[in-house]
UniProtKB/TrEMBL annotation:
Domain annotation Orotidine 5'-phosphate decarboxylase: ranges: 18-254
The keyword Lyase is annotated on this UniProt entry: yes
Protein name: Orotidine 5'-phosphate decarboxylase
Known pathway: Pyrimidine metabolism; UMP biosynthesis via de novo pathway; UMP from orotate: step 2/2
InterPro entries the UniProt entry points to: Aldolase_TIM, OMPdecase_type-2, OMPdeCOase_dom, RibuloseP-bd_barrel
Alphabetically ordered keywords of this record: Decarboxylase, Lyase, Pyrimidine biosynthesis
GO molecular function, one term: orotidine-5'-phosphate decarboxylase activity
Key word Metal-binding present: no
Enzyme superclass (EC): lyase
Family affiliation: Belongs to the OMP decarboxylase family. Type 2 subfamily.
């Protein structure tokens, strides 16, 4: 399915959710009883997807947890991607970006060899490093804006250039490269105070918001200023959902955690009159 912002909005309203479930399926944290199976990571992901697919609008496998295992990890990723229902948005969290001809190969990896709907990209090599990803119709680039980690203070949040923070310049400049139906930004939930300004700079783009749960961000805080007329948020939680239990009940506990977040989102959607 080729997504655009309208379609994402429709899915959000239908599911009463803007939840993205992060498939950071760390082999060292997979429940023990799955480890004897032929492909423990795929079996784990399959159970998580079965347990959460009615509660979320996106899945985000973080590529590090697959490529670190070599060929078998890429195969688990391929099977996972194939298993995700077609109407759920998929994000390759790969944080790529290089000189143009190399970026094009990364783009082919995630948009053709693996048919993801989107990929996360680091913006700091500039326009020619991002453009190859934008040449794929119906696919989104998700550019790192203000990341959720403490190190975002080192450059993104505190470098001041002509009165603008570095991440603000990234948000402004990148909007010259493509429109909101192809460009999203990563904005960490750990910076709730920055959302009002960021939303004013990028009023129409979807934001992928990691940092809820394990990193301390909340749905309420990011929704206060982050929402736009098409909701405009995909809020991710990975460990807080998928590793909430390490026992045989891992999938049902993951569902409970996803349900808690979805219910908070539904409340916001009702209060803000989307529903
Ligand atoms: O700024 C960023 C960008 C990406 N991430 C990724 O999101 C998930 C968060 O996982 P949790 O377990 O919910 O903390 C993970 O894949 C990160 O690599 C981020 O956290 N912050």
């Amino acid at each position: 399915m080729a997504f655009n912002n309208q379609l994402l909005f429709k899915q959000i309203l239908a599911k009463r959710s803007y939840l993205c479930v992060g498939l950071d399926s760390d082999i060292s944290r997979i429940p023990k009883h799955l480890l004897t199976l032929e492909d423990p990571i795929f079996e784990f992901n399959k159970a998580i997807i079965d347990a959460t697919k009615d509660l979320c609008v996106a899945y985000k496998p973080n590529i590090a947890f697959y490529e670190s295992l070599g060929a078998s990890g890429w195969e688990s990723l391929r099977k996972t991607l194939e298993y995700i229902p077609d109407d759920i948005f998929t994000i390759a969290d790969a944080k790529r970006g290089d000189i143009g001809n190399t970026s094009l190969q990364y783009a082919k990896t995630f948009f053709e060899t693996y048919e993801f709907d989107s990929v996360t990209i680091a913006p700091y090599m500039g326009e020619d490093s991002v453009k190859p990803f934008l040449s794929f119709e119906g696919k989104y680039v998700i550019l790192l804006g203000l990341t959720s980690n403490k190190g975002s203070d080192d450059f993104q949040h505190f470098c001041d250039i002509s009165g603008k923070k570095l991440h603000e310049l990234v948000l402004e400049r990148a909007q010259e490269w493509s429109d909101p139906d192809q460009l999203m930004f990563v904005i960490g939930a750990t910076h709730p105070e920055a959302f009002e300004k960021i939303r004013s700079i990028a009023p129409h783009n979807f934001f992928l918001v990691p940092g809820v749960g394990a990193q301390g961000g909340t749905i309420e805080d990011v929704s206060r200023y982050g929402l736009n007329k098409e909701v405009g948020l995909l809020v991710n939680s990975s460990r807080g959902i998928i590793f909430a239990s390490s026992g045989e009940d891992f999938a049902s506990v993951a569902r409970e955690k996803a349900k808690e977040l979805q219910s908070q989102m539904e409340k916001v959607l009702i209060e803000r009159e989307y529903l």
